[in-house]
Amino acid sequence: MSCFRAAAVAALLIPLLPIVGAQTIVVENATIPANESTIAPAVASVDAHESNSTADLFVGETLQLTDAVLANLTELELSNITLFSFQNESSSTETLSKRTIFGKCKTYPGDYFWPSELTWRLFNILLGDALIETVPYASSCYDSFENFDAAKCNFITNNWINASIYHTEDPTSVNAVLFQGSTCMPPALVPAETECSIGGYPAYSVAVRNVAQIQLAVNFARNLNLRLVIKNTGHDFSAKSVGMGALSIWTHNLKQTQFFKNYWQGSYYGPAFKLGTGVQAFEAYEAARQHGVTIVGGEGRTVGVMGGFLLGGGHSPLSSLYGMGADQVLSMEVVTADGRFVTASETSHPDLFWALRGGGGSTFGVVTSVVVKAYPKIKVTTMTYLLATGPSVTVDQFWAALRAFFDGFITYTDAGNYEYFRISKVGEGQFISDMGPWFAPGMSKAQLEELVAPLFAKFEALGVHVDPVYTEYDDYYDAWLASFPVEPFASDSIRQASRLFPKSNWQDAAKLNATFDAVKSVVEEGGYLIAFNIAAAPKGGYPDNAVNPAWRNTVLHAILASLWNVSNSEADIKAASDKLTFDWMQRWRDVSPGAGSYMSEADYIEPDFTQAFFGSKYPKLYRLKQLYDPFGVFYAHTAVGSEDWQMSEKILGNLPSQNSRLCRK
Ligand SMILES: Cc1cc2nc3c(=O)[nH]c(=O)nc-3n(C[C@H](O)[C@H](O)[C@H](O)COP(=O)(O)OP(=O)(O)OC[C@H]3O[C@@H](n4cnc5c(N)ncnc54)[C@H](O)[C@@H]3O)c2cc1C
Ligand SMILES: *[C@@H]1O[C@H](CO)[C@@H](O)[C@H](O)[C@H]1NC(C)=O
Ligand SMILES: *[C@@H]1O[C@H](CO)[C@@H](O)[C@H](O)[C@H]1NC(C)=O
Ligand SMILES: *[C@@H]1O[C@H](CO)[C@@H](O)[C@H](O)[C@H]1NC(C)=O
Ligand SMILES: *[C@@H]1O[C@H](CO)[C@@H](O)[C@H](O)[C@H]1NC(C)=O
Ligand SMILES: *[C@@H]1O[C@H](CO)[C@@H](O)[C@H](O)[C@H]1NC(C)=O
Ligand SMILES: *[C@@H]1O[C@H](CO)[C@@H](O)[C@H](O)[C@H]1NC(C)=O
Ligand SMILES: *[C@@H]1O[C@H](CO)[C@@H](O)[C@H](O)[C@H]1NC(C)=O
Ligand SMILES: *[C@@H]1O[C@H](CO)[C@@H](O)[C@H](O)[C@H]1NC(C)=O
Ligand SMILES: *[C@@H]1O[C@H](CO)[C@@H](O)[C@H](O)[C@H]1NC(C)=O
């Protein structure tokens, strides 16, 4: 990194183009490699004190694009440098009207205004060689990209779904591949497939390691009217980190972590972490364990807990006790749509700070780091059991036992617990539900046994016997590691949706009956249920932020999946897909009017998504979107303001395809 600063003077070399090869430039008539030490990207090292954050900037955050750097480059008569300039009300409006076909669509490969090879090369040089032209992850299985590699293909095929974590390591691969267009699946998973194409994957990505690269990418995309996406892990259920022909900012390498034993900000004084937005759950948890504290993150091992997770709310095994991931934030560093780098906190751009905590990813800016609260080390008791129909449990007993479990949802979350369970139909008249795990932070085994004694007494009264397995841990990390294996996810034969059922449904016997029946009926018809008894209104309170208010009133976050076989006819696949949104989920919506859904584990075509994902926070979020991103630089499917845009094509007749053009409505 230090070579960036040392080479600042080398910016002088830039006017001595032409660029000869992708990685060479001609300087004083000699061809030399263009890399981060020969060409200074437009980077200057900025003193941390210019930030409003009380935490020092990470090294990568001190490397910034500033007006002075741009002025230097402009002085050197490199006219193209306007491609990288910051937002300017008049010139940006002019660019947009000039570069947009009928003033509506983003610019795509093949369009007249698509940047030339040379422009991409110049961009890459300024980026310090961080630009990657997309080669789809599974392309080694095909000849289409001239990189056939049987061994690599075999590895990717074997890990595509089960070890869903590998998609994270690739600059553009995502898990919710259906919405990408399934254009480059491992052939073993799509038997008829013979070709691999780029589809809805972005055209280029930038493997960013510093703020200047992000600013260059944001400015370049805005000035050239390109579609811009941000990819962290690619785990989003709605594939919000892909887009055809887009330029992608890949934040995966922003991995720096820093612990503060005593961090002061506003009314908070206590332990905290500053974490880069590329940090994943397992890394955040390892850092917390190392310092003897606890951090609020998700259950999934590889989730980008400082990225889309936290920006969209972020539920955790600790949420019933400490609230959402977004509730833990003390400050953030952000590149906004105008290309500027700012601190968002209670005292610096407080409206932006409010919106970023729960208002969703890829909407208000590219976050580079987050300072979050840490909590003292905490003991945890977990418990697992299996409930299944069989010789000793009839279908009626099965549902009666589940109903007894549902009856206690308020009691369990009031005790700070979180239960992660699944229910599915495994054959005619055969059902299974595994509790995996019941997670009781702060409780000993004896305390949890006492809490659940009435439940198991009810089970016994119903004639249902289960064998709960309790494990006591003296640290959150150990409990989390033992409880949550890597989850499979990257099939294109699945659609999911979710509902945050209101607590009030548990305070009215008729409503609880209706709620339980709505859950039961969809499982009976083959829906796969993954659910959490969770509440996000901790006794200690929570800040005012953009988290979906439905989270504050829920005791059940339920995810429902509809699955099909890739060999089914298109009509059958469409029927399975539509059934999820318009039949099964409608039953859930009918028993929970006005409630919501979790945007990060959501139905891709959630009806009235602005209400469902943002509730009463939406009008303010929409206003702030217009203020912070007037030119529509950031777009993601179902993000704030996305209702003003549309994709030109649909999958199965109603799923906007990321493998198509994005245009203003
Ligand atoms: C196996 C698995 C387990 C999960 N477990 C949980 C869980 O326990 N709790 C929970 O709440 N959710 C969970 N999720 C859902 C998860 O929160 C979402 O998938 C979330 O979108 C992941 O964010 P990401 O940054 O990792 O992924 P990405 O798909 O890379 O990003 C998601 C969205 O955020 C944007 N984004 C990412 N980083 C930034 C940034 N730095 N600045 C601005 N925008 C950004 C992206 O553009 C995209 O729109 C799980 C998902 C999976 C696949
Ligand atoms: C580079 O080459 C051009 C054309 O051959 C020549 O006019 C110029 O003087 C050369 N510059 C240097 C610094 O050698
Ligand atoms: C960049 O090029 C210089 C000059 O050829 C070379 O010495 C250096 O090793 C290169 N650095 C990188 C990171 O490739
Ligand atoms: C501008 O260029 C000069 C060299 O001409 C250099 O000394 C200075 O550091 C540059 N300023 C910035 C902000 O990059
Ligand atoms: C904005 O751009 C216009 C036209 O390019 C220019 O004349 C003006 O000075 C710029 N304004 C600012 C504040 O940079
Ligand atoms: C710079 O801009 C000019 C005029 O717009 C164009 O002719 C030239 O090709 C551009 N150069 C690069 C490297 O993009
Ligand atoms: C993935 O896991 C499932 C269930 O454990 C197993 O049946 C399947 O064979 C695995 N697939 C691969 C490709 O490893
Ligand atoms: C610091 O905070 C002030 C007041 O909100 C704001 O005007 C300024 O832009 C902030 N600076 C940064 C770098 O965020
Ligand atoms: C709820 O369902 C149970 C069992 O079907 C029934 O006995 C009870 O009367 C119902 N309660 C209400 C208020 O509808
Ligand atoms: C897929 O096909 C298999 C084998 O034919 C069958 O057992 C399974 O139930 C089917 N799954 C779905 C979701 O249709």
CATH class of the domain at 380-607: Alpha Beta
Instruction: Report the radius of gyration as a whole number of Å.
Output: 25 Å
List the ions, cofactors and other small molecules found in this model. Answer: flavin-adenine dinucleotide, 2-acetamido-2-deoxy-beta-D-glucopyranose
Poorly predicted residue ranges: 1-29, 34-44
Structural class determined from secondary elements: alpha+beta
Mean pLDDT over all positions: 90
CATH architectural grouping of the domain at 380-607? 3-Layer(aba) Sandwich
Molecular structure report:
By secondary structure, the protein is of the alpha+beta class. It is 28% helix and 21% strand. It has a seven-stranded antiparallel beta sheet with strand order 19-16-18-17-21-22-20. Strands 9-10-14-12-13 form a five-stranded antiparallel beta sheet. A four-stranded mixed beta sheet has the order 5-6-8-7, covered by helices on one side. The longest helix is centred in the C-terminal third of the chain and has 21 residues, at 570-590. The structure holds flavin-adenine dinucleotide and 2-acetamido-2-deoxy-beta-D-glucopyranose (9 copies). One 2-acetamido-2-deoxy-beta-D-glucopyranose binds next to helix 5.
